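Re: folding output
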Amino acid sequence: MFERPGHGERAILVQIGFGGRASAEELEELERLAVSAGATVVARLTATRAAPDPRYFIGSGKAEELAALIRETGADLVLFNHALSPSQERNLEKALSCRVLDRTGLILDIFAQRARSFEGKLQVELAQLRHLSTRLVRGWTHLERQKGGIGLRGPGETQLETDRRLLANRIRMLTRRLEKVDKQREQGRRTRAKAEVPTIALVGYTNAGKSTLFNRLTEAEVYAADKLFATLDPTLRGLQLGPGLELVLADTVGFVRDLPHELVAAFRSTLKETRDAALLLHVVDSADPLRDERVEHVNRVLAEIGAEDLPQLLVYNKIDEAGEIPGLTRDEDGRVRSVRVSARTGAGINLLIETLRDYFGEGRVSGTVHLDASEGGMRAKLYGAEMVRRETGDEAGGWDIELEAPKVALERFCRDTGLSRSRIRSRPCEGSGASLQSRTVA
């Protein structure tokens, strides 16, 4: 038996095409995942099979070829772009005398490196333990001979059962902690719902530019880099799109093809920000040749968390890399279905802002209301809501106040303050700028 190393940095990538040639794009994504995890790719192995081999996944012949490649390159890690069963991982490690990791394990490792917040670390650890619980026997194969028969039951069986019990206890403890964190998040969501502050959630394939767009819209300093899963921890910012129109923008974890079910389950409380959003900004990398497939992958994950029916606005990002120009696409009813922007350069951001204003404000309304001298309190409330454009006084000490605000904001103001909507004489809106204000949201 070989001594399994705790980690590996020189990696060989394995991609199998079932029923056809192995996809070059999928192999490229695996390489990017490997680099994101800190590995150095020293070789690649591709093959075509009709179906996975039950014992080695790649078949005994390819396993021998892979073993020779390991000896030639000095690799200490083999990364499969597929999900391996526990027995397949164990058999491959025996045959190759090398650490073997499947796609799920690789993504979990990246998440473990990226998590920074207390909640994120709990979620990743929970996902890792759930994944490990199905593969626990793999690490104790050196005690296989110490089982069976009188006097031969002992260390292997006892240690395995002990580890299973410790894992189960740790999983229960992490689940309870995450339930507490989820209750805190739920309280914040209820507060926002009570204040009628809608949430916009940024979703999309990993590295599509969500965090860069988030920073552009909110002037936040969320970490953004050209690598997969650069940021994990969700970030919320209040976004003031105009007088009286406040939203909450949520930056969520990026999705990926075959996102491990353990991660979806562990991050369910975080992804609840997505499920409860009033609108999803689905960010797409315009320069990605597989962008349509990426959209489908994201939609499948959204369906898994119960967010498939939420309204979406497609935001085609990185148009500067794709050689496209800013613009809008509308459906047959005139509604905006997609926006082309560059979060890095700022091109098209004004179009996105105006689209959001129209969506949530149902258009802006403008008008004039007359207040008597006795209504100074109402005048102060109008100024406090930032709806006043200008005012003129009259001889009786009253005011003629010109207002402009999103329709929903004005209607909410009238409902909350008792100002009769019929008192406001409508007039055409003046053009509004695209300035934004943001604040941190708990």
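--- second protein (sequence, then structure) ---
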Amino acid sequence: MKARILAVGQKMPTWVQTGFDDYFKRIQPMLSTEIVEIPACKRSKNPSVAELEKYATTEGGLILQAHANAKRERLICLDVRGKNLSTEDLAEKISDAMQMGEDMGFVIGGADGLSKAVLAQADFKWSLSSLTLPHPLVRVILMEQLYRAMTIINHHPYHRGDYF
């Protein structure tokens, strides 16, 4: 199994890249992971609602194009309106995909969220929180949670769960 992160945006702040890289290195022995950075659209200073939808649609097309190149990849969209999962639930979803021989593609939208077309293609919509989170921060949180889920699957002591 392989996990791909399809994320809108490039050239992340140093603190984001440092946090992401730390968990990215840790997870590699357990789960082959890669990031595919989707270029964000250039935005006007005060975009209209129609322009915001156009940005999301354009970025969504690039996301779907990147996903189309992957065979047997479950598309998991990170969306505030998605379903909340515990870390244990995430570990179970990953374990199920591993047993089915499926890859997983985790989608992080840009500043304007995900297009309707991307959300319609999703096999699952996952909400990290009911809070609106900045998309660069989501990269770090997602990598940490993937790492934590893999430590549960591999019986590593990183996740302490219900021990206390």
